[in-house]
Write a structure and sequence with these properties.
Elements: E1 2-5, H1 17-32, H2 36-60, H3 68-72, H4 84-100, H5 109-128, E2 130-133, H6 144-147, E3 153-155, E4 162-164, H7 172-183, H8 189-201, H9 206-225, H10 229-238, H11 243-251, H12 258-277, H13 288-299
Parallel strand pairs: 1-2
Antiparallel strand pairs: 3-4
Length: about 325
């Protein structure tokens, strides 16, 4: 099988090069009373950043990307919306599965990142016939989290630098898989959500499968509750989720202080526009788009791929459409 290795050299730097470029002049001014040393550090960081980005870009030119419509019968523009009653039934099924299959096991983040990347790489390769190998480094801080207090993690699209902002418990494998999918060249949020879910759900590893199912349930509940955080909490409490899991769902939507809530509101609007300008549907791709994609895939007569058994939350109808020949 062909292998493409994307260096991601910037991920090996002791601190984020982006943070250095942003903060060096200000820190130099505060500590030394002059900006010149900071400017020199900023320039050096930019050189390293640009060099890493160019090397990664050159390697990505050989990557075979997944044709989502062909492989899954669904993409950003061909989604079958779930009716509310269908979504409610999906919630009940997911709650039952999470309760029955619950595992308290936690994997240290560095080890988890390697495991997640292994399954994500293998899943994508099973479709494209090409292994896209990337870094497994994960940071725990990036300055961008100050601007996006509602985000759980981020990936620099040019260098693949990934940061996870907080411990998200059972959700962490999916958060990492989502950002690693960006690192492998899938920029659109719906695609990252879907590939992360399918890779983890088909992994056979209970901790990873649990995370995928939890993410799907979380997004279903967000769609049903809309922007009403209180309604989200009520739905979690009324769902019947075991206490250990419900507590982690509640922690995903903490109350922000008034200042940070204002920052978050402004940045959500800007991020929504950024997504639309890049051909996406907006922030809804994280939840409504993601769950509608899985629903469309599971109901599709034309998808080349089979739904991984652990990924399905309803009986999957036998494929009746033509199964396209694999083309590697």
């Amino acid at each position: 099988m062909e292998t493409i290795r994307i260096p991601n050299d910037a991920t090996n730097a002791p601190v984020s090069l982006t943070d250095v470029m942003l903060a060096a002049p200000m820190v130099s001014r505060l500590l030394l009373g002059a900006t010149l040393p900071g400017r020199l550090i900023q320039l050096a960081a930019f050189g390293l950043y640009a060099g890493s980005a160019l090397r990664d870009w050159a390697e990505r030119q050989g990557v075979r990307r997944i044709d989502f419509r062909r492989e899954f019968g669904a993409d950003l523009r061909t989604l079958t919306p779930m009716m509310p009653e269908v979504r409610e039934a999906e919630v009940r099924t997911l709650v039952e599965r999470l309760n029955d299959e619950y595992t308290p096991r936690r994997i240290p983040r560095a080890e988890l990142a390697v495991e997640v990347d292994r399954h994500l790489t293998a899943y994508i390769a099973s479709i494209t016939g090409q292994r896209v190998e990337t870094s497994t480094q994960v940071r725990s801080f990036a300055l961008v989290q100050v601007l996006f207090p509602f985000a759980l993690g981020t990936c620099d699209m040019l260098t693949g630098d990934v940061a996870i902002f907080k411990d998200t418990g059972i959700f962490e494998p999916h958060v990492i898989a989502h950002e690693f999918t960006h690192r492998k060249g899938y920029w659109k949020e719906l695609e990252a959500q879907a590939l992360a879910y399918l890779a983890l759900a088909s992994s056979g590893e209970p901790v990873l499968v649990q995370s995928a199912l939890a993410e799907r349930l979380h997004r279903d509940l967000r769609v049903l509750a809309g922007d009403d955080a209180a309604d989200f909490r009520r739905r979690v409490e009324a769902s019947g989720l075991r206490a250990e899991v419900a507590t982690q769902f509640m922690a995903l939507r903490p109350d922000l202080d008034p200042l940070m809530e204002k920052v978050a509101a402004v940045m959500r609007v800007l991020y929504e526009e950024r997504m639309r300008l890049t051909g996406q549907n907006g922030l809804s791709d994280y939840d409504r788009g993601f769950t509608d994609f899985l629903y469309t895939f599971e109901e599709s007569d034309t998808a080349v791929q089979d739904v991984p058994p652990a990924a399905a939350v309803r009986p999957v109808r036998p494929r009746t459409g033509p199964r396209a020949a694999r083309r590697f």
